[in-house]
Design goal:
alpha/beta; two-stranded antiparallel ribbon; Peroxisomal Thiolase, Chain A, domain 1; homodimer; about 375 residues; about 20% strand
Chain lengths: ~375, ~375
């Protein structure tokens, strides 16, 4: 299966409506693909919070309204922050029935009051075990960071390096939320605490945006990127139910499936997009995906190996941290970036000799994890 | 593909939590099937409003928490009130990859304030075109009823007959929301107006409940029911965008696909479950599914042909009207009833010579429509 077209909006603060964002991403993806909109056989739309943020569910019918000539299956997928990656996964599972499928993800959140929005986002965690205890997302990931620091002697300085790298990368990505912003090491080191040890620059922002992919069962042009591996894993929704806090079982399950299917290993990956909703999750995910042993992610960071010129560049688009994190779109925009890299169209942030790419997306605190592997020419 | 197990909870007012309802339905379906829970390869969970009613999204991870030994793909599907039927559709689309799949749908709403809940349910309609105009669901379906009465000379008395039939059927269904309630023609005829011409007894109730199905790629026992046809259609989300108010284009699309795949026609169907969120939608759906010509549904009703002893019995479980309408579960409980009928296990409400069954589910005001066709032995 191939990705024959990619499209996305700018991420950040948008005045466009949810349907307008969806339309823009679809338009860009179709424009980018040799496949026309009339050749699309089904659409998967991913979104996390439009019910809570806009009292707008039934997005599949919203998409149908935008494309009235198409009377095709359109289905909404939701698995919290991994909704986009899950929609891609489910579209690939469905491909024996279709020739071309469109996957589009969207989120619009910046218009919502911050305190309310924090509560909305907490809907990805367990109502009784987490929400009623006040265990919002920064607090959950702070617990994980504390455990990781204790167990492996990783430090907050490692997270600072991750944040700095991702902001530098976003400066090279014109569509990134923080493309405009020059962030220095000093700014990150002096950032206000959010939930110890995590500071403001450890946390991904609230962003609006949409992204879309055209998936085709046959190669449509030399710019197509092949999808060679996929996996999804699920786990307990609450940290309180788990034995292990310093890695995500769901990622290990998803990664094993994806590597086995692709017949490659982590050592073969040239460029990767990892789910850095918080910097600590980039660190842990490097370990869960096998880019290094457990606890050794810090060395990859310190040795600059995850920077664009390193041997395993991670989050070249700026990651969720600096590219932005419109949840329903994030898992799809990660794939957008991998396709740009494998096509050698990533411009100033191009990774040299990028042939195999990987994308990784988390729902909640690792209650869902999705991994895809891609091959360029 | 076969349905090898079915399970559901009682519908109505429940004190059980969302996860408890899910667990109960899964437990019953697995108990009913020769397939064990360890043999399940993937789960599709359908729900419409748990984000708005309980601030609980990421239900796939909730299901994973209930079944911690299974580290399998679990995905949430949402298409408003047709979520359950769409989850079944998507599970069937996915079957080339799996041997056994579980589909579970759930809704818990009765604890929510009625005015708030009316707003939540309106999230299935367009925020700008419908919600901001105050066009809540009873109003939308009232507009449709008015148009149908004008165009075809159908009357409110036809809707009264539909409501009466469904309440009578629910009296024969121990799991139905209104199983306990004796409803007379006088009660229905004298019911208070909700949105002219629709009265209280034209509207389905607010119900809690869950339902589940085990889908298997091969026959597992003589009680299995084969799924021989499926179709999904989508349409504009708002009535204001459509040319036609007295039928649903999405149903016609879904029905044609399902009939073509099953190689049967409407005249071959022995028993059907139709989406009667309002009595008018049962009438219109009979016509859209081809059980009669447009405008002639009223004759089927008046001639008692849709009653259990008629030649095309509809909503033998009481329908959404009287069995109840826990949205995320409704499309699945419809299939539960068809399986009971085709297995000849429906007891007092058993349809004689039921061999071919059909289920039909609507999202919103027909923005989504899903049809499945089933064959017994």
């Amino acid at each position: 299966m191939y990705i024959s077209g990619i499209g996305r909006t700018e991420f950040g603060f948008s005045k466009q409506s949810l349907p307008q964002l969806i339309y823009k991403a679809i338009y860009e993806a179709i424009k980018d693909s040799p496949i026309s909109i009339e050749q699309i056989d089904a659409i998967f739309v991913s979104n996390f919070l439009s019910g809570l943020c806009d009292n707008q569910l039934h997005l599949n019918s919203i998409v149908s309204s935008l494309l009235p000539e198409l009377k095709i299956p359109i289905i909404r997928i939701e698995t919290a922050c991994s909704s986009g990656a899950t929609a891609l996964y489910q579209s690939l599972i469905s491909m024996p029935h279709y020739r071309n499928v469109l996957v589009v993800g969207v989120e619009k959140m910046t218009h919502v009051d911050n305190i309310k929005l924090t509560g909305h986002i907490a809907s990805a965690s367990d109502r009784t075990l987490d929400q009623e205890q006040g265990l919002i997302f920064p607090a959950n990931y702070a617990l994980i960071a504390q455990q990781h620091f204790q167990r492996y002697n990783s430090t907050h300085e490692d997270l600072v390096l991750i944040s700095y790298k991702n902001h530098q990368n976003a400066n090279l990505n014109p569509l990134a939320h923080f493309n405009y912003k020059k962030v220095t090491m000093e700014m990150i080191e002096n950032a206000p605490l959010v939930a110890a040890p995590l500071t403001l620059f450890d946390c991904s922002p609230i962003s609006d945006g949409a992204a879309a992919l055209v998936i085709s069962d046959k190669r449509t042009s030399s710019r197509d990127i092949e999808i060679i591996g996929m996996g999804i894993g699920t786990d307990f929704i609450s940290l309180s139910q788990r034995k292990e806090l310093t890695s995500f079982e769901a990622t290990k399950i998803a990664a094993k499936k994806a590597y086995d299917m692709a017949k490659v290993g982590p050592e073969d990956i040239n460029v990767a997009e990892l789910h850095d909703c918080f910097t600590i999750s980039e660190l842990i995910s490097m370990e869960d995906l096998g880019f290094c042993k457990p606890g050794e992610g810090k060395y990859l960071v310190r040795e600059k190996r995850t920077m664009i010129k390193g041997d395993i560049p991670i989050n070249t688009d700026g990651g969720l941290k600096a590219n932005g994190h419109p949840m329903g779109a994030s898992g799809i925009s990660q794939v957008y970036e991998i396709v740009m890299q494998l096509r050698k169209e990533a411009g100033k942030r191009q990774v040299q000799n990028a042939n195999l790419g990987l994308s990784h997306s988390l729902g909640g605190i690792g209650g869902t994890s999705v991994v895809h592997i891609f091959r360029g020419e």
